[in-house]
Write a structure and sequence with these properties.
Elements: E1 2-9, H1 13-24, E2 29-33, H2 56-69, E3 73-76, E4 79-84, E5 92-96, E6 101-109, E7 113-116, H3 123-126, E8 131-132, H4 135-138, E9 147-150, H5 156-163, E10 170-173, H6 181-189, E11 193-194, E12 199-205, E13 208-214, E14 219-221, E15 224-227, E16 230-233, H7 236-241, E17 264-266, H8 277-309
Parallel strand pairs: 1-2, 1-6, 2-3, 6-17, 8-15, 9-10, 9-15, 10-11
Antiparallel strand pairs: 4-5, 5-6, 7-16, 12-13, 13-14
Domain FAD/NAD(P)-binding: 4-283
GO molecular function: thioredoxin-disulfide reductase (NADPH) activity
Keywords: Flavoprotein, Oxidoreductase
């Protein structure tokens, strides 16, 4: 069994950023990653200072190279079980799908979240291309074009008001929602159109979105459509360890990512559904600094105990 100071579960921006800080701090670090980044469908990553427009896969390639360059291990694999290594101090054994077991004094979980999309034909195929989620990530690229917002979640109307900032031609498709009179008045005040009724499918021509077809056959031309998916944290590891969750099922952590379970930290979308790539990277760095300080405290205590036992 390979033993590490910190085992990072999840090799996205949060996990790699944490591993970089820890490796530079002379810690023995490994990053276990299953190779399924949330933003894989996106062609470009926006809003990351000095990396604006970079393909997400390229950011991860550069990050892995930097982390490896400082001596950290990058392990391709899937975690199947995490358990305590003992009761004396925080310590963990992490089992992988291939049978390997890794030991670590501390854990940083950065496994992200899953986007549960509306069950509408065409949505999954266009996800990250012209069926979009984050206006801050993609709004500039589709600015001034005919845009749509598909409902089905409580935040859809607020999302439409946000998307309106990038275009003066925005249409809301409530889909399965029922808009209140106040919702409609607010949308009307900002010249946002409303097309009632369930959405049938997305219309695509020559591999480009061209419109939204309603269940009754009406087609509303649109160049891009936004949707608020249901966000589900990939927090099975944290739940299995007994980390406290809030009323919505998200792990409870302090500003550094420390959870309710000793020795376990979190960073990125697994705990913060609103974290963009640059935010997740910052959270990974902050968690790494807190983790290292915690390890230093443990190192000092062990050294002091050994010193006092010396004749």
């Amino acid at each position: 069994m390979n033993d590490y100071d910190v085992l990072v579960i999840g090799g996205g921006a949060a996990g790699l950023s944490a591993a970089l800080v820890l490796a530079r701090a002379q810690r023995r670090v490994a990053v276990v990653d299953a190779g399924e980044p949330r933003n894989a469908p996106a062609q470009h990553m926006q809003g990351f200072l000095s990396r604006d427009g970079l393909p997400p896969a390229e950011l991860l390639r550069l990050g892995r190279a930097e982390v490896s360059g400082y001596g950290a291990d990058i392990v391709a694999g899937r975690v199947t079980d995490v358990r305590r290594a003992g009761d004396a101090a925080p310590g963990f054994e992490v089992a992988l799908a291939d049978g390997d077991v890794l030991g670590a004094r501390r854990l940083l979980v950065a496994t992200g979240l899953r986007d549960v999309l509306p069950d509408i034909p065409g949505v999954r195929e266009r996800w990250g291309r012209d069926l979009l989620h984050c206006p801050y990530c993609h709004g500039h690229e589709v600015r001034s074009r005919p845009l749509g917002v598909i409902g089905g979640t409580p935040e859809a109307v607020a999302h439409a008001h946000l998307v309106r900032q990038w275009s003066d031609d925005v249409v809301v498709f409530p889909h399965t929602d029922t808009l209140t009179a106040d919702d409609r008045e607010r949308l009307l005040a900002r010249a946002v159109g409303v097309v009632d009724g369930p959405v049938g499918r997305l219309v695509v021509h020559d591999d480009e979105l061209s419109g939204v077809e309603m269940a009754d056959g009406r087609v509303v031309p649109r160049a891009a459509v936004f949707v608020r998916p249901r966000l589900v944290p990939d927090n099975e590891v944290l739940v299995g360890l007994g980390c406290a969750l809030d009323e919505n099922g998200w792990v409870v952590a302090d500003a550094t990512g420390r959870t309710s379970v000793a020795g376990v930290w979190v960073a990125g979308n697994v705990a913060n559904p609103r974290a963009q790539v640059i935010t997740a990277a910052g959270e990974g760095s902050a968690a790494a600094i807190a983790l290292n300080a915690d390890l230093v405290d443990e190192d000092v205590a062990a050294a002091l105990d050994a010193f006092r036992r010396t004749p």
